Amino acid sequence: xxxxxxxxxxxxxxxxxxxxxxxxxxxxxxxxxxxxxxxxxxxxxxxxxxxxxxxxxxxxxxxxxxxxxxxxxxxxxxxxxxxxxxxxxxxxxxxxxxxxxxxxxxxxxxxxxxxxxxxxxxxxxxxxxxxxxxxxxxxxxxxxxxxxxxxxxxxxxxxxxxxxxxxxxxxxxxxxxxxxxxxxxxxxxxxxxxxxxxxxxxxxxxxxxxxxxxxxxxxxxxxxxxxxxxxxxxxxxxxxxxxxxxxxxxxxxxxxxxxxxxxxxxxxxxxxxxxxxxxxxxxxxxxxxxxxxxxxxxxxxxxxxx
Length: 306
Description:
Layout: H1 2-12, H2 14-19, H3 21-30, H4 36-48, H5 53-69, H6 78-90, E1 104-109, H7 116-129, E2 134-138, H8 146-157, E3 160-162, H9 170-183, E4 188-192, H10 200-217, E5 222-230, H11 235-247, E6 252-256, H12 266-274, E7 278-282, E8 290-292, H13 295-302
Parallel strand pairs: 1-4, 1-5, 2-3, 2-4, 5-6, 6-7
Antiparallel strand pairs: 7-8
């Protein structure tokens, strides 16, 4: 199954590869020497691949240092060096999002339309398949249709859901879900939340209230907050992450819709500029198409490794 996911990842990143590594390959063929002009062209390609200005400058600086240190003169060695530089940037130490020794409460945040509810459905399915007892809380009571959408994913993944009516207090839904989780000996509770980033104050108050309920009702639980971002929005996703990190502490990113975008390079920018680890990536519509992020697999797919 994992090799199948790598193929999907390669296919999903094909547009990014076309606008990134394929263009770099073309540039390298036209240069006989490694000089400032070559670095400038690579820099331009990185920026247009939605890696972002600051991260691009750091990549180029690291690339120059590596090439100088290793005494590389042949332009054909530039791309393997670039691959290593990007891989080293992404290989950050990160703890597991799920604890085997504690109850897990995972808040899923993000603006509307990025795939929050779908991500909860797919993650619930993933962990249920791994033998975990999973429960969903439909605490996005603001968006029309959000509860019904999560209900559909509940049925599809075979995972129970705790819900109230539209307009109910989200913290009350989470409270009910925590009580249900206790009585059913649930190991992982996923909580959907509203995505009203345009109204920061309300969203901040709502998330603070939910967190107070969790802290009071589930002392000692492993509580994490994951932000869902749509990779097709490129650098706008980085801005959303910055805004959400001002509202609440973030433990990781779920990056959706990597299939069919030329902006897959945004992963590098998110992880480097925000220092928030990418935890999961989505490369398709299927229930198994959201998997844990593996930096080496991502870079291999980006550079077209077979």
